[in-house]
């Protein structure tokens, strides 16, 4: 089944900027551009210009659809309960329902009792009250597909923990609503366009169990680029119920990479003997947990080449550094924020994520500081070290590659 990837025009973009957004989306792999009446007025956009870039989906949200939009549209989205009528030119109707709260499958099916043209597409959306609601959405998807035909149906979950659920649902959906990236998304829980395109281009088995990375502020993560597809970036808030997420996704995922701030929480949740873990591997009806960060820690300590090393921060990465230092007989001193007495000298490893502000009094004097973040976050940390008088060593890529190599080996053994 062909899935169309839909990007929604942000409310801040009008006129030529709107066309440029559509052109950028087309280059990156989007198939459809959506314009909604709650985000744009009739004169904000040129529907014909957008439709010349890619198929145009126009969605009625509270305010009526302008006639020129309908004329230029590939599809016309009208809500089966809120729209005054379901009029659309032949072959253009996308009938949708946006529930105000989670529904049972029986409740969802009752919302779809209205007669529809045989060529109408069907989109059902509801907020998730938790990750376990995926099971209900899968039942709803199956029942709607049986009623209308699988090629016509799309079922979406929304909310702060919806990303992995939407990834699972996407395998049987006709439409995939995705985010271009950046600060604005059309709905909570949307996957990133780049991740969806990568999956469609590289996944060898469309029914293979998924892999993913769990963390906060992980848009920069390179894990999806180096591991086999499908591989999802699951960006959750720090207070998110990550334990419930991994439990609900056990039937659908072969494994997870775990990054800050969930390494210690999931170690405890999975009953690991380790204080922190960064890898989950499916073993039938349970998760087995590992810490391949030890491979990364080993690579960093070897490149640092010091007998005595101090660590800034005491999170999940520090646990791996402790284990490797003990194996190698290195003196490792862990310094927490409240214990910092500056200026700092010698050799250090900075483990704080770049979203965590360092103490104001932190200063270095002739100190080498290993940075274990990579990409843009690693460069930001390095700039902060320089600003405070230290010499940064960018070793995040070495850490990342070493631990990822071991993760790949472990995921190959998933059952």
Automatic annotation (TrEMBL):
Full protein name: Shikimate dehydrogenase
Organism (species): Corallococcus caeni
Source species taxonomy: Bacteria, Pseudomonadati, Myxococcota, Myxococcia, Myxococcales
